[in-house]
Amino acid sequence: MLQQGQQFPLTIKRLGINGEGVGYFKKQVVFVPGALPGEEVVVQATNVYPTYTEGKMVRIRKRSPHRVKPPCPVYERCGGCQLQHLDYNAQLEAKRDIVIQALERHSRLNIEALDIRPTIGMDDPWHYRNKSQFQVGVKKGRVIAGLYSMNSHELVDIDRCLIQHDATNRVTTVVKAILQDLRIPVYHERKKTGVVRTIVARVGFYTGDIQLVIVTATKELPRKQLFVAEVKRRLPEVKSIAQNVNGQKTSLIFGDETIVLAGEPYIQEVLGDLSFELSARAFFQLNPIQTIKLYDEVKKAAALTKNERVVDAYCGVGTIGLWLAREAKEVRGMDTIPEAIDDARQNAERHGFTNVTYAVGKAEELLPKWVKEGWKPDVIVVDPPRTGCDNALLKTILQVKPKTVVYVSCNPSSLARDIDTLAKQYRVEYIQPFDLFPHTAHVESVAKLVRK
Question: Are residues 435 and 291 part of one domain?
């Protein structure tokens, strides 16, 4: 049994689900952040548990040929990315392997027989994020904004994040300077004093529209008029300036109240031939370039011929359903968030779709009701949160028996569990991994399931 603090040699076999190196010491699994497959390293045990050990790398005895120097100056401290030290093509291979590992661990499927395709990556895997949410703090009397270091309360100031669109970096930098110049009090988490908590900047990749949201702990924003005037003067490109109030002790960024301080209440973004209005809190995919490839894959998997009834479960603002609407007979979407359904309805109306309807509610409650009324879907598309599909929804799918299920996943473990449940009646035609977040351990997939 390993002891805490003990040093030992380890060969890294693969990458784990959080991007850490995984090896085995006397049959016990060891997780080592920063270590890469094929490397021989010396590790110090930091936390020893009955079934696994966490360690830190002391030195590398044999380096991976895929190890590269991370270009970001705060990479080691920030924790926002996990894989900048791994060559990009090797990252894509590792992400396919993470999907395979999840299937091995959480399903009884015959993995050898599955068509798991090579990960679709980006031509330029930098500056792809259209939105930044940086916490604000004060260090040595200077306003800083960035992310909290891994497992700590140290806020790392990020001047130019290499995975963020340059426009969001610029907005954050200028807003930090404005807060400093106007001496607007910054929120202090421990003391519960001050006002400004987070700077949120979002850019429309295809329109150039920019949105700034200041998240505050109180409704009162000192020198509000001056702040708005300075933003307009120094950042004339910003179309929408809003304040969101979040006085709760929570890890969630946004509170319930949003006040538009200047400009439009939303910005425009375009995906393919669809345009979207994004209000301050509206969810939108963070990597528009890859999102188009992902949605095109969903369209391919759905294989519509203008005769099908389609359900878009967990539909959000309706992006996937609208992407498919032209080739479907009818699309019905549902979500539990009323604001998202309002947005979805407006999006459908703006594009002139008459074959799309949206309802507030859970798919597992609405679907049986529709079937009872004589409306049965041919294709169900699910794009669930990280936790995967609700068990009741999986049961409902098995009862409703659509011809095709297209599963869009942002978490390989829940994907594996869910398709294992559906495997009673469905054959997995293929799984296509996507890299929506280069240099992080995240991997998205589209799985096509066909009724046996």
Answer: yes
pLDDT of residue 277: 87
Which helix H or strand E contains 100, and what residues bound it? helix 88-106
Per-residue DSSP letter, 236: T
Give which of 317, 444, 315, 330 is closest to 382, Cα–Cα: 315
On the question of pLDDT at 150 being above 90, the answer is no
Q: Tokens for 431?
A: 């799984």
- Same domain for 343 and 234, yes or no, is no
pLDDT digits (tens, 9 = 90+) for 257-304: 999 999 999 999 999 999 998 889 888 899 999 999 999 999 999 999
Three-state SS at 263: strand
pLDDT digits (tens, 9 = 90+) for 37-80: 999 999 999 999 999 999 999 999 999 999 999 999 999 899 89
- Tokens 């473990």 locate to 413
Domain of residue 106, CATH code: 3.40.50.150
Annotated binding site for S-adenosyl-L-methionine: 285, 314, 335, 383
- What's the CATH number where 25 sits? 2.40.50.140
Rg value, the chain, Cα: 24
Between the CA of residue 107 and those of 31, 93, 100, 414, 415, what are the distances in Å? Answer: 22, 21, 10, 10, 9
Q: Which residues contact 73 (CB under 8 A, 6 or more apart)?
A: none
Q: Are residues 337 and 406 in the same domain?
A: yes
Residue type, 206: Y
Q: Is 258 helix (H, G, I), strand (E, B) or coil?
A: strand
Confidence of residue 340 (pLDDT cuts 50, 70, 90): confident
407-422 residues labelled b (16+ CB within 10 A) or e (exposed): bbbbbbbbbbbbbbbb
Q: How confident is the model at residue 127 (pLDDT cuts 50, 70, 90)?
A: very high
Residues marked active site are found at 410
pLDDT greater than 80 at residue 151: no
Q: Which residues are annotated as a binding site?
A: 285, 314, 335, 383
Last residue of a domain, one of 20, 48, 67: 67
pTM of the shown model: 0.93
* Sequence-ordered list of residues with C-beta below 8 angstroms from that of 120, at least 6 positions apart, any chain: 290, 293, 297, 432, 433, 434, 435
Please tell me the predicted confidence (pLDDT) of residue 219: 96
Residues 246 and 313 in one domain: no
- Range of 203's domain? 131-279
The domain boundary residue, chosen from 227, 250, 279 = 279
- Given this model, what pLDDT does residue 283 score? 81
The structural domain count of the chain equals: 3
Provide the pLDDT confidence category of residue 152 given band limits of 50, 70 and 90. confident
Do residues 323 and 299 lie in contact, with contact meaning Cβ atoms separated by under 8 Å?
yes
